[in-house]
């Protein structure tokens, strides 16, 4: 950690003095200061529930037992009537276990990130849903090694503006998830896919993106059923407008979202955050789905000469080629590029990290873009896009005028 402070000797002395006097937990909250995400701007309160669903039509490819079926932790967020005295739930599911496991994976003492367990959401666990009308549905797919709650800022903004959002942890592809007993399930790579990847570089991501899409398709199917897997009335079925279903995701979740747009007639629109489209073929990328697509990403997607962390490797160049084919051929398509952003700018890490704190470690991988500009650009673009695609409202291009120095906007609307 010392190298992060090498340009400021005073910070080094303060850091180690505090570490010796106060210990790991205290120094963690000082060196990596965190704050809960902002309240969303919409008019609806937010309720949430967590479920554990099993896809009995799919064997689990990450385990060797033929009797293992695909199990998913699924979280649902929905418009709800919330009163001032209602207790908000945590940002993370099983926060203590999640933080301890993530810390172990990162190779740091578990107490160092313990304050992350205190991050709160704006949702109330088990709150009664509003039943005044049906709401459009957005399915969210996290990045490779991510979490269902990694973009809670966007999830809550959607729900507060009249959407139902459902996300699963893609089991074994999430950094951590849990079974119904609360046991930890960590990230794992599929050995067979890895072996094939040495012969065909796209093979692993292609297999993975299809498997992740099958998770989304399964979750959508479960939401349409009259009864839940527990045999009780499905509480979401009558709340959702199944003629207005969109999908969105970050990184590989963005690629998964576009794969879903291509292959699932039920899905009417897709949005990607700094998407990883590497798994898709050129043939797929040249298809005009005639369904709306939007990408919000770093400026490197628009101009490869600027600093970025996605598209300069050989795989990155392939990703950019596939993305440009999508943008050229799929109509309507929209794109917003945030200057001075990087890959993790487009997750909640950018929003919860207090970079301006005096002793904060400078996390360069979060990018230098102002986090208020990032949040507002993503959320306003997202609401604008899905309102247009799923609520029959006009797409407002003028919202980008106020960000013309920080954001580049382009569109390809001609059918």
Commentary on this structure:
By secondary structure, the protein is α/β, with parallel strands linked by helices. The chain has helices spanning 9-22, 24-31, 95-106, 152-160, 191-197, 203-224, 252-263, 282-285, 314-329, 348-352, 371-390, and strands spanning 45-59, 69-80, 124-125, 135-141, 164-169, 176-178, 184-186, 240-250, 269-273, 293-298, 333-338, 407-412. A ten-stranded mixed β-sheet has the order 3-1-2-5-4-8-9-10-11-12, with helices on both faces. The longest helix is centred in the middle third of the chain and has 22 residues, at 203-224. It is globular and about 50 Å long. Mean pLDDT is 90; it is low at 1-7 and 11-22.
Short description:
The chain has 415 residues and is an alpha/beta fold. It contains eleven helices and twelve strands.
Give the arrangement of secondary structure elements.
Layout: H1 9-22, H2 24-31, E1 45-59, E2 69-80, H3 95-106, E3 124-125, E4 135-141, H4 152-160, E5 164-169, E6 176-178, E7 184-186, H5 191-197, H6 203-224, E8 240-250, H7 252-263, E9 269-273, H8 282-285, E10 293-298, H9 314-329, E11 333-338, H10 348-352, H11 371-390, E12 407-412
Parallel strand pairs: 1-3, 4-5, 4-8, 8-9, 9-10, 10-11
Antiparallel strand pairs: 1-2, 2-5, 6-7, 11-12
Helix pairs in contact: 1-2, 4-11, 5-6, 6-7
């Amino acid at each position: 950690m010392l190298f992060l402070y090498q340009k400021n000797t005073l910070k080094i002395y303060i850091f180690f003095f505090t570490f010796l006097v106060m210990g790991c937990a205290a120094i963690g909250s000082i060196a990596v200061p965190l704050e809960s995400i902002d309240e969303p701007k919409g008019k609806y309160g937010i309720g949430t529930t967590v479920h554990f669903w099993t896809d009995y039509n799919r064997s689990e490819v990450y385990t060797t037992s033929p009797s293992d079926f695909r199990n998913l932790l699924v979280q649902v967020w929905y418009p709800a009537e919330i009163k001032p005295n209602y207790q908000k739930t945590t940002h993370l599911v099983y926060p203590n276990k999640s933080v301890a496991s993530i810390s172990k994976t990162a190779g740091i003492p578990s107490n160092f990130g313990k304050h992350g367990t205190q991050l709160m959401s704006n949702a109330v666990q088990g709150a009664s849903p509003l039943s005044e009308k049906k709401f459009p549905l957005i399915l969210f797919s996290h990045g490779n090694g991510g979490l269902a709650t990694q973009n809670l800022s966007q999830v809550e903004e959607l729900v507060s503006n009249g959407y139902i959002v459902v996300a699963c942890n893609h089991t074994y592809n999430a950094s951590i998830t849990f079974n119904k007993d609360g046991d930890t399930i960590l990230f794992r790579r599929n050995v067979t896919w890895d072996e094939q990847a040495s012969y065909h570089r796209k093979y692993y991501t292609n297999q993975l993106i299809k498997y992740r899409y099958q998770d989304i398709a399964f979750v959508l199917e479960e939401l349409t059923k009259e009864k839940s897997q527990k045999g009780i009335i499905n509480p979401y079925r009558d709340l959702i407008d199944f003629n207005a279903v969109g999908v969105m995701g970050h990184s590989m979740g963005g690629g998964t979202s576009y794969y879903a747009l291509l292959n699932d007639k039920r899905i009417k629109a897709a949005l990607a955050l700094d998407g990883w489209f590497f798994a898709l073929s050129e043939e797929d990328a040249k298809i005009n789905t005639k369904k709306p697509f939007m990408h919000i990403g770093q400026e490197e997607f628009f101009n490869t000469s600027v600093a970025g962390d996605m598209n300069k490797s050989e795989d990155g160049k392939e990703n950019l080629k596939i993305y440009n084919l999508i943008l050229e051929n799929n109509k309507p398509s929209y794109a917003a590029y945030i200057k001075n952003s990087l890959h993790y700018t487009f997750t909640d890490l950018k929003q919860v990290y207090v970079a301006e704190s005096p002793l904060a470690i400078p996390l360069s991988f979060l990018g230098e873009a102002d986090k208020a500009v990032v949040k507002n650009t993503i959320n306003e673009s997202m609401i604008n896009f899905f309102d247009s695609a799923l609520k029959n409202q006009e797409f407002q291009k003028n919202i980008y005028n106020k960000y013309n120095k920080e954001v580049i906007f382009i569109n390809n609307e001609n059918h």
